[in-house]
Amino acid sequence: MVDESTLESVLGPELDVMLGEDGQQEEEQELISEDELLGEEAGEASEDDAESGEEGEEGEEAAAPAVEAPHSWSKEDKAIFAALPAEAQAVIQRRETERDNFVKQKAFEASNTRTQVANEARDIIVKMHEEHAQKLNAYAQMLLPQPPDERLLYSGNQDDVIIYQRQMAAYQRSTDQQQQLHQQIAQAQAAAQSAREQSQQAERASDAQRLQEQLPEWFDPSSGPKLREQLHSIGAELGYSSELMAEASSADIIALKKASEWKADAEKYRALMAKKMETVRAAKDLPKMARPGVKPSKQQANAARSQQAWDRLKANPKDADAAAAFLGL
Predict the structure, then answer these.
(1) Which of 10, 185, 199, 313 is 20 to 30 A from 2 in CA distance terms?
(2) Rounded Cα gap, residues 35 and 51, in angstroms
(3) In angstroms, rounded to a whole number, what is the distance separating the alpha carbons of residues 2 and 109?
(4) How deeply is 74 buried, as exposed, middle or buried, from its count of CB atoms within 10 A (0-12, 13-18, 19+)?
């Protein structure tokens, strides 16, 4: 991977200009938290809780620690940073984060480009060896040795014997050439296979590096096993067999991680909606309030009788009278 300090020394102050407001907007668009997903649920708290929450927030803001200086700064620079106003510290920290993210992104792109070029070069080498083997094989087919005509030995003509001897010498030379060609063909095929295996190994190493950069927790000894188990479960739900999961690329694993996050969000949303529906159902079960001295309307009386019939039917599903009254028969 390209060293970050190398990129910083090359790009220099152009980083801040290249980042600009677009980098900030992209970062803000990506920061979607669980509080935004469950914001509607948080808004359902009681007024008393809201008042106590406001007081707690004021206390937390007062007790909030100062913004830490970037870790790469020297001790003297950190001391100057600590003396700055909190607003200035927040701006510097945000810009430093954007700068680091920009450098990491460019280093990642440079690494991917270098890997892509190397893989293409290996593919070209494999193709060259394969084409060379094919040409040698075609040439070998054209130079198939022809054995001498043994009838020349029994013609009784001395000249025919000389012709036979010449044919035998040519046959032996052709046989030797065939053996050499087949050896060269085998060497070219072995070189193509070796280059192909090297390309596959390099691609696997590059894929592992991409996964290390994009999902480091996959390799963490503490969180890695749990994450792998979780993604294997998601993969099984999506139709991935154990064999496919064993050969999953970094792109597959990142996609499964995203699918796992979507599933978790969906489950939270369903839990939120289920809680809301419980409140709605509880409100429906409350008895209707009637003002004293007011005769209920026909619709209210029918509703009351229907509710009574339903209560009887729930208590005894075989009560035909209750079923008929509930259905209005």
Answers:
(1) 199
(2) 19
(3) 9
(4) exposed
CA angle 55, 56, 58 (to 5 degrees): 65
Please tell me what DSSP assigns to residue 309. H
Residue 149, helix vs strand vs coil: coil
SS3 274: helix
- Estimate the crossing angle of helix 14-30 against helix 86-142, to 10 degrees: 90
By CB neighbour count within 10 A (0-12 exposed, 13-18 middle, 19+ buried), where does 69 fall?
buried
**Using the 8-state DSSP alphabet, how is residue 38 labeled?**
T
Q: Looking at this protein, which amino acid is placed at residue 180?
A: Q
Q: Tell me: the pLDDT tens digits for 269-300? A: 888 888 877 776 776 665 555 555 566 667 67
Residues 6+ apart with CB under 8 A from 184: 136
Whether the Cβ atoms of residue 195 and residue 122 lie closer than 8 Å to each other: yes
Q: CA torsion 201→204→206→208, rounded to 10°?
A: -140
Distance of CA 161 to the CA centre of its chain: 77
CB count, 10 Å around CB of 195? 20
Cβ neighbours for 219, distance < 8 A, ≥ 6 positions apart: 211, 212
**pLDDT, tens digit, 9 for 90 and up, residues 48-61:** 444 444 444 444 44
As a whole number of angstroms, the distance between CA 296 and CA 273 comes to: 35
Half-sphere exposure of 85 (CA within 13 A, CB side): 3
| Lookup result for tokens 């954007």 | 98
CA distances in angstroms from 115 to 46, 110, 120, 204, 215, listed in the order given: 57, 9, 9, 11, 19
